């Protein structure tokens, strides 16, 4: 942590992301009663309690045969802090998602920037669609760290100089890089989250392979851990079905 000038906020470098479950209404029973309304009508809620032992079987059936709508009757809201480039990928997920991100038009952004952790693979090899990533050597790691730190400090200094001169925040923000951390609330249901996880995680159980960028995968892994605690039967069925969203 270091200061970039008198009175300036200290520049911070982070290699991890933050994911907090701030609100939820999500349980395996939500899937069961939503499915049973097809045959039980208004008695579906009562049927949930009477047939609790059959819930796993029903959820597995719905997942396997891709009856997706019962997985939509729940809600999870996450607070996420991550680099801006992660959010640019995240916002491609539109169906079943709602977002509110902090605005650089209305507040001065804090100088928190992304630096890859030591285990982050740095070198890309291969053709499009057949990439592989390898660790990289110490020289490459040193170059990445020095180049990023220099760029971040330079851009944030320019940002603060423009703000001090009276330039509007919405104009001054143009000099900031995508490695800057932003924050948002993201709300989804289990079905939309499963679609997200199927694309943004790499897992040996997946029937359809995916090759996500590591930084958004870090967010996805933390979200999945929260969801698995809320809906363990649904999470297990998702894995058993090859991590294909219904």
From TrEMBL:
CDD domains: ThyX. InterPro entries: Thymidylate_synthase_ThyX (IPR003669), Thymidylate_synthase_ThyX_sf (IPR036098). GO terms for biological process: dTMP biosynthetic process; dTTP biosynthetic process; methylation. Its cofactor is FAD. The active site is at 200 (involved in ionization of n3 of dump, leading to its activation). HAMAP family: ThyX. FAD binds at residues 69, 92-94, 101, 189-191, 195. Its EC number is 2.1.1.148. Homotetramer. Coiled coil: none annotated. The keyword NADP applies. GO terms for molecular function: flavin adenine dinucleotide binding; NADPH binding; thymidylate synthase (FAD) activity; thymidylate synthase activity. Belongs to the thymidylate synthase ThyX family. Binds 4 FAD per tetramer. Each FAD binding site is formed by three monomers. DUMP binds at residues 89-92, 101-105, 173, 200. This is Flavin-dependent thymidylate synthase. Catalyzes the reductive methylation of 2'-deoxyuridine-5'-monophosphate (dUMP) to 2'-deoxythymidine-5'-monophosphate (dTMP) while utilizing 5,10-methylenetetrahydrofolate (mTHF) as the methyl donor, and NADPH and FADH(2) as the reductant.
């Amino acid at each position: 942590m270091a200061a970039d000038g008198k009175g300036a906020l200290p520049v911070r470098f982070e290699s991890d992301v933050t994911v907090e479950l701030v609100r939820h209404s999500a349980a395996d029973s939500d899937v069961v009663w939503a499915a049973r309304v097809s045959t039980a009508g208004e008695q579906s809620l009562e049927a949930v309690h009477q047939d609790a032992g059959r819930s796993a079987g029903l959820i597995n059936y719905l997942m396997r045969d891709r009856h997706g709508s019962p997985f939509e009757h729940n809600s999870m809201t996450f607070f996420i802090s991550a680099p801006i480039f992660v959010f640019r990928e995240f916002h491609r997920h539109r169906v079943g998602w709602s977002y509110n991100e902090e605005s650089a038009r209305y507040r001065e952004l804090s100088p928190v920037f992304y630096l890859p952790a030591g285990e982050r693979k740095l070198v890309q090899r291969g053709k499009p669609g057949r990439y592989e990533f390898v660790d990289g050597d110490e020289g490459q790691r040193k170059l990445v760290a020095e180049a990023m730190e220099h760029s971040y400090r330079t851009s944030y200094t320019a940002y603060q100089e423009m703000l001090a001169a009276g330039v509007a925040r919405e104009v001054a923000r143009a000099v900031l890089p995508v490695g800057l951390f932003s924050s948002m609330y993201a709300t989804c249901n289990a079905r939309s989250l499963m679609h997200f996880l199927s694309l943004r995680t790499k897992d040996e159980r997946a029937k359809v392979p995916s090759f996500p960028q590591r930084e958004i995968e870090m967010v996805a892994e933390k979200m999945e851990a929260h969801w698995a605690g809320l809906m363990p039967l649904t999470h297990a069925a998702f894995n058993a079905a090859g991590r294909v969203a219904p």
